[in-house]
Amino acid sequence: MTRFSLMFLAGLATTTLSVVSAGDCETFKGEDSCLSGSDMDGEGCQWCKSAAVPSSCHNATMAEGLPSSVFDCNAAAANDLEGDVNYLVLALQKCQGSSTWTLHGLWPEWGQNCGSEKFDEAQISSIESDMEKYWLSCPEYSDSNVEFWDHEWSKHGTCTADSQSSYFSNGLAARSKFLDKCSDVSGTSCEVCLTSSSKTSSDLTYYGTSCP
């Protein structure tokens, strides 16, 4: 990347951040305080590292808008978080023309994009046939199944303490166990709030139709 490009992107980031009010994640100046903090709306903070400009703290919305070529943003790892009750959203969907509820995702409420481990299709080889049936990318979307699974692992799975095989296996199991919670839903999407006693996607218990 050229020096001019870095200066331009740094200027863009500075301009974007200037609209954030005081008291948000930007007030945290260190990585530890950032990862344990949240903004005024309760959204968890992410520490965005950069070799070109000073590293800084932002909420997830702001972090997503920063240029990925300059910033590498991460939320708190699952084992750094505290709390006895951990909420996860089981999101189901019906692909166009289908009456079957399939998985959109299993989403921990405590963070997003929590690690850098890349998705490895080989780790789910033993359950891939089930994944293709019950956790598929709907044909009306442009992503392949592998691209879809990559996205779900990177954004959500990395925030659990699970291995890739465990995360996706637990997601399939959760769909089977709580599928009846969507039986009266007439639309094409359904979300169920689950709880876990640990920062994993196992040992899930039904909480309600929405998380607190």
Poorly predicted segments:
3-10, 12-23, 77-82
Q: What's the main sheet like?
A: 4 strands, antiparallel
Overall, the morphology is: globular
Order of helices and strands: HHEEHEEEHHHEE
What's the quick description here?
By secondary structure, this protein is an alpha+beta fold. 28% of the residues lie in helices and 18% in strands. It has a 4-stranded antiparallel β-sheet, with helices on one face. A 3-stranded antiparallel β-sheet has the order 2-1-3.
What report would you give on this structure?
The structure is a single chain. With about 210 residues, this protein is of the alpha+beta class. About 30% of the residues lie in helices and about 20% in strands. It has helices at about 5-15, 30-35, 60-65, 130-135, 145-155, 165-180; strands at about 45-50, 55-60, 70-75, 85-95, 100-110, 190-195, 205-210. The radius of gyration is 19 Å and the shape is globular. The N and C termini lie far apart (about 45 Å). The relative contact order is 0.14.
Per-chain topology:
Layout lengths: L2 H15 L13 H5 L9 E5 L6 E4 H6 L6 E3 L11 E8 L8 E7 L19 H7 L10 H11 L8 H15 L10 E8 L8 E4 L4
Antiparallel strand pairs: 1-2, 1-3, 4-5, 4-6, 6-7
